[in-house]
Automatic annotation (TrEMBL):
This is Intraflagellar transport protein 122 homolog. It comes from Perca flavescens. It is found in: Cytoplasm, Cytoskeleton, Cilium basal body. It comes from the Eukaryota. GO terms for biological process: camera-type eye morphogenesis; establishment of protein localization; heart development; intraciliary retrograde transport; nervous system development; non-motile cilium assembly; protein localization to cilium; regulation of smoothened signaling pathway.
Length: 1186
């Protein structure tokens, strides 16, 4: 650090007590005598003296916004001045004013006198004053303007808030014997706490936090300090006092040096805002302005750069990894040297030697190895593995780390440059440049320097190449000279250089900087230039280390220029070495290509590996293999290289020259350059022309113009290939043209056309093609695959052999689309009975699980009919099994059909059935339920419904029976309460059933009244005749089943019934018959009750009391007597027999469904058919023909 005097002024016979800078640094306000003086900072010229005070002016302060300043005087008054140097306001205290300070934020002014201090702000009319116990000597606001510190004569620092209330009190140990003379807050914005510097006349400098806690120890001074002042950013402190000089300190209080020596006490010193200028004011009236110049102290070795920071710290920076480490020395750092793992730092009284913790190239942890506690004067410092070298003018001294002087060299001229150039530990070599132009090499273990060269001008900078063969020198005329060390010959010189360095990784490259340019020179090629600020100090691989002012940076420089210079000279190996230092991918490609064309396969291979170009690597490998096999025709190799590079015509010429025309031909055809190929072979060679044509056709197939290719194939008669191309691209128009032009005998092309039509979803064209071929199976398959069922069915009608091919997939498709009933029918049609049954069984099971009992009944009915169908086709034993199944399924169908009503009644809130119907249904179901109750049917629900309906209809006995039965079963909780209540309340009813209900259960054969519930099932308890129920209301119908006598066929029976003899004739004939018989009988009534009157009624009589059922059998004559109206016939398909029923009440109209043969009251049936549009039982649509 140097201090240069900028200007100096003296005010005669006056003491300069205080000074203040305008915040923009243009003006200086000085308190001198009775006046306030305004100076120009630039040259020290006085601008204007300001009069207003009547006594000595002790203090001045400028507001932070630069609008006004204040002065305080021994005349007890404060004057506020504007920046235009006009006084605008004056106020007074009771004692002389000692110091003033403006709040940096609110611009409140603190003015302090011997006995009190006041706070004034522009918006206030009065000044708030606060008494103090001791004389105030100095004051200062914190950066945020919240607190004011007051320094007093009694050694106390009082910290007050904006209202003047004391918050913190700092008492110095010396008390009133060490008055506080100056205080200052650190203005740095980087500090976390407010830091107060306190200077007292106990000759101490101390630092405190706002809380009053001291930071560090007191710094002892050798003088009484009069003023302490910070630089704008708080990095340094300036202090002056009784030692008649101003000194520079670090922010921690470490003294760095003297700024300017004076002839009297320095009363005041201030730093110009945001600059390195310091102004001092002395007791003898001297005002001096100094500029501080901070020099760079630094050292560099390869990629490690050490430099001084804040005068007392050393920062070591790794230029490649950008890591930094700070070493705090807490003293002024004078010199730095760095070499390998060593770092030497010279402090005022000692030299510290550090070493790295480890040998790792990126390690940045230093520890102290040695301390040499001696004061040295030296211009340059160098460190080696075991020594330090001190250079003082002409003398070089070599000291060991234990401070023993081992050697000394004295030069004939001043030493201008010194550098360690490496070597074994303890025997390193130094390169020394002298002012007289001599360049020496000195070894640490050798007393005798070796003169390398003698120049005519002084040396500025030196460097030796990696192999110690070349020396680069920059002289004082900024000329770079490069010499061969061995021959002392000047190899070349370049102008405009201020520093030079050889590349540490490449012998032939060096770079130098100067005039704002960076210059790179390789071998003896021309220089490559690029713009760069600052000094070039090192060159490692592709990184150039550049120092600009204080900052060192590593500049990545692609080494393209020198590489291309080598390439031009076909020096591939050297170009490769340069490229390894760092070039772009495109440079690598250029190097690889040039080397390949220069047939330097080794370099080309390495370069292609760098850019990972496998194509060229394969080429090089194949050439190397061929070389191993003894091929050595370089022209042929070059032809291959040209072909790879796309220089096809050059390649063809070389192929022709080497006698490999076939290669040229295959190259052109592979590249589809058929025109060039034709040119190349000429018109003379028919064999080659033919090969060319086939290749051209093949190319057409794989080319990007498939339509042209297809046309070429068609014209060549290659139909299959043409169809493939057309089909792949989906050109239906061309495809159908081909299909129509082809002969039907050409099955393979036609089949391919049809295949592509299918793939393109052109069903019509595919169908047309298959028809043309006559391939019916494929056509059926097509219809099935495309789901065109109508066409498929029409084909099956003409060709029944394909029935299975259509109906099975159709059924599967229906099943996949959840159309199971249709699927079942389709399976049935296809003759796949097992599948048909399987589908139905699955449907039935699902319906039961899902409580769809209606559907379950319907599916069971269908299953039974299916079994009947199967029974017709099967053998005898299987037929019986199927008929048993038929019976079982018919039974189940009826049970589920009726249970649906009960389930709806118990589970749903509303019932559409009349109570009588529900009553009948429950009884029917209970009469027909065997021990094995079908899944899904609940006996509880049935009994519960029966109990409720019985009670409603007056069948109290039956209701009570139902409730008792329910008690034996497991009852769901939802019915529990209702059933318990019902079974209690039913006991209040009479224990018999309604007469009407019992009459409704009369047997129409024997006129017996049957019980409401019959444990024998749905048969008469007397004659065992089965009851015939209506399939809607489940009332007993007035029908009696009769059977035909032996020898009467169904056809005969129907024709006999259809004869229908008129009634009167019948009567007469019968009468005569009776008359002609042995017995004669005359009845007096009208004969209606006469059993002989109606032969059928006679047949109905039976023996009373028999336990076996005697069926009604009729003869031909009886059949003849029946009316067609009164007979219902269930015409079951074979192998079942027809069933015959005779209505005993002809007025009761009964309808039978022709499909399921269920009987209904005609009105019920008509209503249900209107509701459902079909039979409620078998779902036969009403419009379906019988």
């Amino acid at each position: 650090m140097r201090a240069v005097l900028a200007w100096k002024e003296t005010i005669r016979d006056q003491c300069v007590y205080d000074l203040a800078f305008k915040p923009d640094g243009t003006q200086l306000i000085i308190a001198a005598g009775l006046r306030v003086l305004v100076y120009d900072v630039a040259d020290g010229a006085i601008i204007q003296p300001l009069k207003g005070h009547k006594d000595i002016v002790y203090c001045v302060a400028y507001a932070k916004d630069g609008k006004r300043f204040a002065s305080g005087s021994a005349d007890k008054s404060i004057i506020i001045w504007t920046s235009k140097l006009e006084g605008i306001l004056k106020y007074t205290h009771n004692d002389s004013i000692q110091c003033v300070a403006y709040n940096p934020v609110t611009h409140q002014l603190a003015s302090c006198s011997t006995g009190d201090f006041g706070l004034w702000s522009p918006e206030q009319k009065s000044v708030n004053k606060h008494k103090v116990s001791s004389k105030i000597t100095c004051c200062g606001w914190t950066n945020d303007g919240q607190y004011l510190a007051l320094g007093m004569m009694n050694g106390v620092v009082s910290i007050r808030n904006k209202n003047g209330e004391e918050k913190v009190k700092i008492e110095r140990p010396g008390g009133s014997s060490s008055p506080i003379w100056s205080i200052a807050w650190n203005p740095s914005k980087d500090e976390h706490n407010d830091i107060l510097a306190v200077a007292d006349w106990g000759q101490k400098l101390s630092f405190y936090q706002l809380s009053g806690k001291q930071i560090g120890k007191d710094r002892t001074l050798t003088y009484d300090p009069c003023c302490v002042s910070y630089f704008s950013k708080g990095e340094y402190i300036v202090m002056g006092g009784s030692d008649k000089q101003a000194s520079l300190y670090t922010k921690d209080g470490v003294r760095l040096g003297t700024i300017g020596e004076q002839n009297a006490w320095v009363w005041t010193c201030r730093v110009k805002p945001d600059s390195n200028f310091v102004v001092l004011g002395c007791q003898d009236g001297t005002i001096a302005c100094y500029q501080l110049i901070f020099s760079t102290v630094h050292g560099l070795y390869k990629d490690r750069y050490a430099y001084r920071d804040s005068m007392t710290d050393v920062i070591v920076q790794h230029l490649i990894t950008e890591q930094k480490v700070r070493i705090k020395c807490r003293e002024l750092v004078k010199k730095i040297a760095i070499y390998r793992n060593r770092l030497a730092i010279q402090l005022p009284e000692k030299i510290l030697i550090y070493e790295l913790y480890s040998d790792d190239s990126s390690d940045m942890h230093y520890r102290i190895k040695e301390k040499i506690c001696r004061k040295f004067e030296c211009n340059l410092l160098v460190v080696c593995s075991q020594h330090i070298i001190l250079c003082q003018e002409k003398r070089l001294q070599c000291l060991s780390f234990t401070s023993v002087r081992e050697k000394e060299w004295v030069m004939e001229s001043l030493i201008r440059y010194i550098k360690v150039i490496g070597g074994p530990p303890g025997r390193e070599g130094l390169l020394v440049g002298l002012k007289n132009g001599a360049i020496l090499k000195i070894f640490v273990d050798n007393l005798f320097p070796i003169t390398l060269l003698k120049l005519s001008t002084s040396v500025r900078c030196l460097d030796m190449s990696a192999s110690r063969n070349k020396l680069a020198v920059v002289d004082e005329h900024n000329t770079l000279l490069v010499y061969d060390i061995n021959s002392k010959e000047l190899l070349f010189q370049e102008p405009n250089a201020n520093s030079v360095a050889w590349n540490t990784q490449c012998e032939d490259m060096l770079c130098f900087s100067g005039n704002g340019y960076l210059n790179i020179k390789a071998s003896n090629f021309p220089v490559h230039q690029q713009k760069m600020q600052g000094f070039m100090v090192g060159y490692n691989g592709s990184k150039i280390f550049c120092l600009h002012v204080y900052s060192m940076s590593a500049v990545e420089v692609p080494q393209s220029a020198p590489m291309y210079q080598y390439l031009e000279k076909k020096m591939f190996k050297e170009a490769y070495q340069i490229a390894c230092l760092g070039v772009t991918d495109s440079d690598w490609r250029d190097l690889a290509t040039e080397a390949l064309e220069g047939l330097d396969f080794d370099t080309a291979k390495k370069a292609f590996i760098r850019i990972r170009d496998l194509r060229y690597l394969e080429l090089i490998n194949s050439i190397e293999e061929r070389k191993k096999r003894g091929e050595n025709d370089n022209e042929l190799f070059l032809a291959d290289v040209y072909a790879y590079q796309g220089k096809f015509h050059e390649a063809a010429k070389l192929y022709k020259r080497t006698g490999h025309e076939s290669r040229a031909l295959s190259m052109y055809t592979d590249l589809r350059m058929f025109e060039y190929a034709k040119e190349f072979i000429g018109a003379t060679d028919p064999k080659n022309s033919r090969i060319l044509m086939t290749k051209q056709a093949d190319w057409a197939k794989s080319s990007k113009e498939p339509r042209a290719a297809a046309e070429m194939y068609l014209s060549a008669g290659e139909h299959l290939k043409a169809i493939d191309i057309i089909g792949e691209h989906g050109w239906e128009d061309m495809l159908i043209d081909i299909a129509r032009k082809l002969d039907k005998a050409e099955r393979e092309p036609l089949a391919k056309c049809a295949f592509y039509f299918e793939r393109l979803k052109h069903h019509g064209y595919a169908s047309e093609t298959y028809s043309k071929m006559g391939d019916l199976q494929a056509l059926v398959q097509l219809h099935v695959e495309t789901r065109h069922w109508e066409e498929a069915f029409s084909l099956v009608e003409k060709h029944p052999q394909f029935k299975n091919h259509v109906f099975v997939p159709y059924a599967q498709w229906l099943a996949e689309n959840d159309r199971f009933e249709e699927a079942q029918k389709a399976f049935h049609k296809a003759g796949r009975q097992t599948e048909a049954v399987k589908v139905l069984e699955q449907l039935t099971q699902n319906a039961v699980v899902e409580n769809r009992f209606n559907d379950a009944g319907y599916y069971y009915w269908m299953l039974s009919m299916q079994c009947l169908d199967i029974a017709r086709a099967e053998s005898e034993d299987q037929r019986d099994e199927m008929l048993k199944k038929f019976e079982r399924f018919q039974h189940l169908a009826e049970l589920y059909h009726v249970y649906r009503s009960i389930q709806r009644y118990t589970d749903e809130p509303f019932s559409s059935h009349m109570p009588e119907t529900l009553f009948n249904i429950c009884r029917f179901l209970l009469n027909n339920l065997t021990k094995d109750i079908p899944p899904g049917i609940s006996k509880v629900n049935t009994l519960y419904a029966l109990a409720k309906q019985s009670r409603r209809l007056g069948a109290y006995k039956l209701a009570r029976y139902s409730y008792e039965k329910l008690q034996e079963l497991h009852i769901p909780s939802r019915f529990q309460e209702s059933i318990e209540l019902g079974s209690l309340t039913i006991r209040s009813k009479p224990f018999h059933d309604s007469e009407d209900l019992i009459e409704g259960m009369m047997c129409y054969r024997c006129s017996t009244n049957n019980p409401l519930l019959n444990n024998q099932g749905s048969v008469c308890i007397n004659c065992r005749q089965p009851f015939i129920y209506s399939a809607s209301s489940y009332e007993v119908l007035p029908l009696v089943q009769f059977y035909l006598e032996e020898g009467i066929s169904d056809e005969d029976a129907v024709s006999l019934i259809d004869l229908e003899v008129p009634h009167t004739d019948q009567r007469d004939a019968r009468w005569q018959d009776m008359d002609n018989g042995e017995l004669q009988a005359l009845r007096m009534d009208d004969g209606l009750d006469d059993p002989e009157e109606d032969p059928f009624t006679a047949k109905m009589s039976f023996e009373q009391g028999g336990s076996t059922f005697v069926p009604v059998k009729v003869s031909r004559s009886v059949l003849r007597s029946m009316s067609r109206r009164d007979v219902l016939i269930k015409r079951w398909p074979r192998p079942l027999k027809w069933e015959y029923f005779r209505s005993l009440l002809p007025d009761v109209s009964i309808t039978m469904c022709p499909t399921c043969f269920k009987m209904f009251h005609s009105e019920d049936y008509e209503l249900l058919v209107l509701q459902h549009n079909c039979c409620p039982y078998c779902r036969r649509p009403i419009d379906e023909p019988n």
